[in-house]
Amino acid sequence: MNNGIELRHLRYFLAVAEDLHFGQAAKRLHIAQPPLSQQIRQLERMLGHALFVRTSRSVELTPAGEVLIERARRTLAKVQEDVEAVQRVGRGEDGSLTVGFVESAILSRLPAVLGRYRSVYPKVQLRLHEFHTQQLVDALRNGLVDVGLARDAGQEDWLQVEPVVIEPFILVVPRVHRLARQETVPWAELKDEPFVFFEQSAGQKAWDRTMENCARFGFQPRIVQAAEQWLTVLRLVGAGLGVTVAPASVAGIAHADVVCLKLTPQGGATHLDLVCRRDVSNPLVGGFRRLVLEGFAEPPQGSSEEFPMP
């Protein structure tokens, strides 16, 4: 502080000003009276004005002391408020957290987790951004996002990846399609079908997993149309442009023009991953991670209960 005034000077001054008794103030501060008197005299010298009128019988505040008492209270209260704010941030209870997520994540338990997070951490400013997986990984790399939920994020040395949902693939066909009445469809049945699929640039690992599944059953999908969002993909399928293979959670946005079917045999699943930097610096990430892991723990990952067919 200016002129060498420290917070202890203000605390000592307030104790004397409130008690108007050096002995009682010293006892409250748990120090001896002579050091207290010395600190008050030092404060008066730094200010250049007396703060107390001392007699053998009483202690009274001077006009300068009357002015200082309220200002000292405000100063100490503000310092305490700032200290508590810093401590809340350090504990992950305050500050700003930027969360990225892919479209299919919003079809999972993520909305419930976000609601729970706002309830548990009401002082945190939560910023939400929707991305494709590759965009989300790039945003994490560049420090634009603190944590996120990605589809098949893949492995990077700097990236921490934790699968929170492991779900099967499903087949989506037009309601008038020849396969629409079947309960399950073998992968090999799709070899001659035209496909509508998401853009490869949206997420290379997710793309690779789907292609690997098709290759296991002896075919490479003939992609006739690509789109950036699953809702668009489903609308195009419903219009008869082709079929698609999607994460089971996408059944949650299926409309009346399409039918979602189980694929057999079930193989190579797709992951919804909790992702952040290994060197994450935002202390709020820990609290968010805890609530995500808790929120996705029930029902069991990949269970039919979590991904009902419409």
Plain-language structure description:
With 310 residues, the protein is of the alpha/beta class. It folds into 3 domains: 89 residues, Arc Repressor Mutant, subunit A (Orthogonal Bundle), CATH 1.10.10; 96 residues, D-Maltodextrin-Binding Protein, domain 2 (3-Layer(aba) Sandwich); 100 residues, 3-Layer(aba) Sandwich (D-Maltodextrin-Binding Protein, domain 2), CATH 3.40.190. The protein is 38% helix and 24% strand. It has 9 helices and 13 strands. The strands form 4 sheets. A 5-stranded mixed β-sheet has the order 4-3-5-13-6, sandwiched between helices. Strand 3, helix 5 and strand 4 form a beta-alpha-beta unit. Helix 1 packs across helix 4. About 2% of the residues have low confidence.
In short, what is this structure?
This is LysR family transcriptional regulator. Keywords: DNA-binding, Transcription, Transcription regulation. The chain has 310 residues and is α/β, with parallel strands linked by helices.
